[in-house]
Amino acid sequence: MIVSEGMSTVVLTVGPDRPLREVAKLMTQRSVGAAVVVDPDGNGPGIVTERDVLRAYAEDRVTGDDPVSDYTTERAVFAAPDWSLERAADEMVRGSFRHLIVVAGGEIVGVLSMRDIVSCWAREGATSDMPG
Question: pTM of this prediction?
Answer without folding.
Answer: 0.85
